[in-house]
């Protein structure tokens, strides 16, 4: 990785040279799995480059349920290996990336006649805790549970069980992993759509990719190609492998914390279909999710919540928090992600009955990762690299090593310990550069969020922002956390970031128009129930 800024100007200058190199490994897909593959390859000295068709974390990896969990539901399905790997990786991430991956307390209320009851659920948690090497669950009868989780429906309440998993900012996790990969010599480009796989002598020998920004096409040559394209996994692979990707959509609501305050994640089964639903605190707001249904829209269109999903999630809130009386007009933003679930093709199988196991589809010179989970991106990356090692001609060892390098021990006297922890977690090795901006930009927060104006400036300078939605929906989450997609803050965001991005007035106005249209279409309420957004410059 060079010492120059990682931005659009660097990208334009570097792209022809990167295309002219011979690579050991090309990674296609810039979500968490692709970032993990790049990180592990770079650590081992492989010449490796990642190409992402839209933006890093653009797909599922910025629109997940934000949970780093061990997969408690997989124990009930007998998938102990998946649970064991997930629990191990959850503990690793909690240890390595505090401030980015943090513990989250869950409470499952038990109601008369519901399954699982306290004893059965306690048994599952005993196994779950044993896999993590600790015992952290506890049952609470109704009186203390009212203090732990006020506002719960009281009728038929037997008590509640508390256990622990973890929560993250999924898009920042991807950026942090990419940063580690680049620090070890890997490279990554967004806005590069892979058009086809290049084949020679009966094997994959690279890719033909189009620069979405300029329309120019480049041939990238490599000894191996690893595809980690999520729901797009079927698009480029060689036909003939068993199984296919079944795109399943999961949608979420985000509410102001004051509208539905929770100190813990509340987990329960939806009365309509007995699927698990969560209400949990995230980034100073409250998230409600998720749905699980077949996604039939074209994958190149951003997923969005449907009216039926909105009603389903509002009904879930009313089921457990009837006194809150949450309505559609209370919703601050929404998001919908598409899960790349590997299916054997049983047409009658319900979405929630599909297993969440991944698969590798291998042809000479190319390995395609199908499926996978946010939590287990590291072991998935190692599995892909083992399959690629023969093509590259390198042995793959797995020495004990951390995903994340140590953060420099810099003093941050102007910031609270909690804010210091947050910045260290989200920015890692880049922290010295971010702190240098505090002297000129200051340590003020954007609105009521925890995001600093200096973080916006840093992203515009150094995090390969190509479009305004990259900045507001993934490098930061201001488009989700502030009313109207951060509409009231856009003039100040423009004053800070437009010069850093090198955009003309015309370019900024076009980007802002496109971003607000995208936000209304895919991150607000469905159109039939859309709440009028405040006019530009008006109070939200």
Description of the molecule:
The protein contains 18 helices and 18 strands. It has helices at residues 8-20, 32-43, 72-76, 80-96, 118-132, 142-148, 170-183, 233-236, 307-320, 377-392, 417-427, 431-441, 453-462, 468-475, 478-481, 483-486, 490-501, 505-522; strands at residues 22-28, 48-51, 67-68, 101-111, 138-140, 157-168, 187-189, 192-200, 203-211, 217-227, 244-256, 265-269, 276-282, 285-289, 293-294, 333-343, 359-363, 366-370. The strands form 2 sheets. Strands 3, 4, 5, 6, 11, 12, 13, 14, 15 and 16 form a 10-stranded mixed beta sheet that branches. Strands 1, 2, 7, 8, 9, 10, 17 and 18 form an 8-stranded mixed beta sheet that branches. The radius of gyration is 23 Å and the shape is globular. The two termini are 42 Å apart. The model is unreliable at 532-540 (pLDDT under 50).
Topology:
Layout: H1 8-20, E1 22-28, H2 32-43, E2 48-51, E3 67-68, H3 72-76, H4 80-96, E4 101-111, H5 118-132, E5 138-140, H6 142-148, E6 157-168, H7 170-183, E7 187-189, E8 192-200, E9 203-211, E10 217-227, H8 233-236, E11 244-256, E12 265-269, E13 276-282, E14 285-289, E15 293-294, H9 307-320, E16 333-343, E17 359-363, E18 366-370, H10 377-392, H11 417-427, H12 431-441, H13 453-462, H14 468-475, H15 478-481, H16 483-486, H17 490-501, H18 505-522
Parallel strand pairs: 1-2, 1-10, 2-7, 4-12, 10-18
Antiparallel strand pairs: 3-6, 4-6, 5-6, 8-9, 9-10, 11-14, 11-15, 11-16, 12-13, 13-14, 17-18
Helix pairs in contact: 2-7, 2-10, 12-13, 13-17
